Every structure is written in C-alpha cells, then in structure tokens.
Amino acid sequence: MKTGREWFGLVLLDMKLYSISGYGDDGILDSCETYEPIANTWKPCASMNIMRTAADAAVINNTIYVCGGFSDNPSNTCEYYTPNTTPDKWLSIQPMLTERVGLGLVAHDGYLYAIGGYNMNNGLLKSMERYDTLTKQWIPMKNMTNNRYFLGSESFRGRLYVCGGSGDSSAQNTCETYDPITNQWTEIASMINYRSSFKLVAFNDSLYAMGGTNDDGLIDNVEVYDYKTNKWQLTKPMPAKLYGFGV
After folding, report:
1. Rounded to two decimals, what is the model's pTM?
2. What does the domain layout of the chain look like in residue ranges?
3. Which candidate among 14, 115, 136, 216 keeps its CA 20 to 30 Å from the CA of 77?
C-alpha cells in the first residue's frame, strides 16, 4: 500500500482490494486506496467524510459500507461507497443504534450485521444490530453470549461466526455462531489460541483464524476450523506476526 495502516478496513470488490481508513504515521486516516492486480499497483480512491480507526467494512451489492470506529470519540456513523459511479464520493447512511469501536461488520443475506465492540457509555459490548439496505434502518438483534472487542467475525455456511476478541479481562478464545433463521447464538469449540485484533476468514469451506495478539504478545500462527467435527487445528503459520491487519 502507499499508506501504512493498522486497524483499517480491507474488502474485495470486482477483483480489486480496497484499503480504507485506519491508523497511520500521521494519526487517524480518512483515506482510501485500491489495488489493481493487472497493473500491480495501488491507486487512491475517494476519501471518507470522517477519519476513523478500528472501524470495519463489508460489501453488499457492489457497494462498500464502513461503520463505527474511533475519531474523537467512539462512533456510530456509517458511510458507503460505490466505485465507478457518480458522484465519486462516500455518502452517509443511518447511524447505528450504538457507538462501536473494534466491532465486527458482516454482510449476510443482503443485511449488514454490526457486532460487539466497545464504547465509553457501555464498555465492552455483546450486542448486535442489523441494517436493512432496503428500509435503510437499523434494528437490535439478539445479544452474543460474550462481550467482544476487536473480535473476528465472518459469514459462513448460512450463519454468522464470531471468535476471540478482548473480553472482560484479556484476549479470549471462545467462539459462537448465530443462526438468522432461529435468532439464536450457539457456542462452538474454542480456538486453540487466545486472540484479539486478528482475522477470521472463510476459505475452501473452512474458517481460518489468523494472527492477532494476546497476553504473550503478537501471534503468527493460523488455525483452521472444521465445522463437520467442530474442531480447530493448527496449520502453516504466517510469515510474520501481525495484528490490526487486513485479509
């Protein structure tokens, strides 16, 4: 990337990577850049309206959404960006019901789910809310079992999965899954490692927990979850110890 970032949003849209906001050498960022694999180069894209770090990003219907994060204070604001359209700028949507820093933002079945995080009024959060892109409204959903801040979150096999994150004292390894049909959270097998500020990624019909940090420091190891056996196992580690990164 042209700008070094941590705690930023990274999404894939139309075979391009978009790196959005975060924290860099000059502080909290509002900038956006996109990677074009054919040209093997990063190019700037429209800057956001608000500088934010520890937000999260997701894609629905060729549109990038970014919610929450921290600027002067924990934020509940959200913006969206549709590349290759006019005007070439970020636009605002309805704010979330709750300010959230270090949240998980997951696109699933045409909805946005904002999960967990932290704010100054409530502390660590176990709450979840859902945004309907048709009605343009947020509604509260069923709480997770555990408070989670800088968690890993992903849509996988018709459900939402959340793992790790900072809990009431330190990084945790617990995981749970949400079924939108029954509106229920169910705990699943805990990860082998305690992790916060890491990435949870669905790939090849499995979930991968990558990197992060815990009481022992930065993490380079990777573990994979098999939903059929409800077990985690270690796989090949990353080449570097990373946290607050994008995948």
Report:
1. 0.96
2. 1-101, 142-247
3. 14
